[in-house]
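re: that complex we talked abt at group meeting.

here r the seqs, copy pasted straight from the sheet so there may be weird spacing, ignore it
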Amino acid sequence: MDVDAIRPAAGVQRGGSDVPGGRRKQRVSMADVAALAGVSSQTVSRVSNGHPGVIEATREQVLAAMRELGYRPNSAARSLRYGQFNTIGVILFGLSSTGNSRTVEAIATHAAAEGYAITLIPVDMPTQDNVLGAFTRMGELAVDGVIVILEIHLLDASTVALPPGVHVVVVDSDAGDRYPVVDTDQADGARQAVRHLLDLGHRTVWHVAGPAESFASDRRAKAWRAELEAAGRPVPPVERGDWSAESGYRAGLRLAAHPDCTAVFAANDQMALGVLRALHERGRPVPGHVSVVGFDDIADASSYLPPLTTVHQDFAEVGRRCVQALLRQLRNEPADPGTDLVPTRLIPRASTAPPPDAGR
Amino acid sequence: MDVDAIRPAAGVQRGGSDVPGGRRKQRVSMADVAALAGVSSQTVSRVSNGHPGVIEATREQVLAAMRELGYRPNSAARSLRYGQFNTIGVILFGLSSTGNSRTVEAIATHAAAEGYAITLIPVDMPTQDNVLGAFTRMGELAVDGVIVILEIHLLDASTVALPPGVHVVVVDSDAGDRYPVVDTDQADGARQAVRHLLDLGHRTVWHVAGPAESFASDRRAKAWRAELEAAGRPVPPVERGDWSAESGYRAGLRLAAHPDCTAVFAANDQMALGVLRALHERGRPVPGHVSVVGFDDIADASSYLPPLTTVHQDFAEVGRRCVQALLRQLRNEPADPGTDLVPTRLIPRASTAPPPDAGR
DNA sequence: TACGTCGGTGTTTACGTAAACATCGCGCAC
DNA sequence: GTGCGCGATGTTTACGTAAACACCGACGTA
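got the structure back, here u go
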């Protein structure tokens, strides 16, 4: 009794769900605003969307009513009406890699600038099944398009039945000609790394590659090999890691066992960090005896011991171009089906130098 | 003419927008499925949602029709009907910090497991205006609740008018009693770090703090000071960085100038990395002359030179609890208004040792 | 003065879904 | 045999928004 008596006075227009059992009118709708302002809901709509043809007095009245009621447009209704969600889905396998999170960040920023929200669709493990599941889930998700950040060759076999009407842009993969692809110019970056070391006078360059399943790792390794072969140098056996510093450390220990190894190109900075540690522990000074080059140019790389020479990747630019490419599709503008390569550049720091026998 | 004649034969039910001008019926609706299956749309709805009371034969028929047409439920319509979006918004300032991306990853994973999608709402710079903008934008966003990962004291002044009906969980901040808070037990972590160094025999511990605006940095610094004072040790002046390895390096150079500095507690691992580099360059061996402890236990820390003793933060657990807490709110279960602290633990590695004068 | 035009506003309708209610036919109990 | 109940399915309606169309006065022109 008392409570009931108090309630009407307490909350002007609660909005919250008063009724214990089920959900009550959660939010203020146009009709509510219209009623308060003494106009039709269509006029409220016009004001809400900034359409012309509303006289200033009316407009003010509606805005006042909106403020009073705390009106917020219902995006579900909007989406239903317009047939689109203004949302971009991002399918990825983990944010833990620096590259991924930087790319996603850039995607989110640029998408926001274009009025799109971004929805994350994480894939536990990049297995065929899981990726498929993600696509299926996404089919039911409120997204207009999708940016896929993973090794798409996981999908090749199954010719995934992508829901029609959902547009796709792929990052860091070989989507072939099926989707537009945005990617860092991995090959050129690897080439620059190898060239840098050869130019310093090293006879050849050893390579610590990423995991075999990784397409990015693949391309870096291929370019490394190609550059060595083009220069007529011997191609040492590949050491392989899993992108982690730990795995780089183990690879580094193996490399340290080769006395003729004077130059190492690691497929990413973190493995390079592990290599630095291994070489240090084995008494092989860097860059005195061995030179090391990484890939990515993560923020920490300049603080390694010694500061790491590495290949800079512009993740932000990759994210930017993804959004652009996807928006082009969404707007039905002519899509460029090919691969859009973001250039890389070598950042020379203190981990590279001429080989110890340079003067001989 | 020819084209028109061909079309019906060519595409079974294109779905794509044929009409050049505007958007045509983009997707297959329940009505389409119902028509093909020869049932009412309500029956399609029942099948779609796995409701009981549909005879097996009918059910099969509907499923077949769904498959044939490639039916996917329209989540906008669903959301409109149900009054909720099954989506959680995450407001954050950048994914670049390891902690943030790991937390977001965990949030995304657990949210997905509960049938929620997550929408990212990036804030360019954590200024009052931007954060407010994010909240406003979010008000119009299709989210049922929000997880805020930033220094909420940026918001304090303005008593942000959070849209009613939107639930909030805050990470890594002092939201006071306004919202449930999930956080790492920063204070205890810092205490452990200091204690570890004192136990090794160091007379006192120097501190490289994070930026002044950071609440996390604040708490670590406060706990560091408190622990020193409790032990009756002198409290050296605080050096301050911005979380980056570069800033840690500069702070490290300043510390290296103090000959009596034998123990350093850095507020995160990356600044610790910079400190390691500075000490190395200044000929102060770690841990021979100086011991260093970090905070976070990022993956790379075990590969630093030397491998870093640090305080482990369980970001994944933080993410998990955030989702749990938010879901509890969404389900109108009794919310625990207090702060939920995730414990930390010290990981001893090779960067700490007794001070050089230990035997004296 | 009468008629067309146009600016400002209201009314109708559709978007896709699912709860609530209505219907229909069949088997079983009295 | 009649009526009741129940299982399977159809019909109506509402969710909130905005395009399309309808309307109604005031003004300008013939």
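couple things i noticed - Residues 39-43, 46, 53-55, 58, 77, 79-83 of chain B lie near DNA strand D (CB under 10 Å from a C1'). The two ends of chain B are 101 Å apart (CA to CA).
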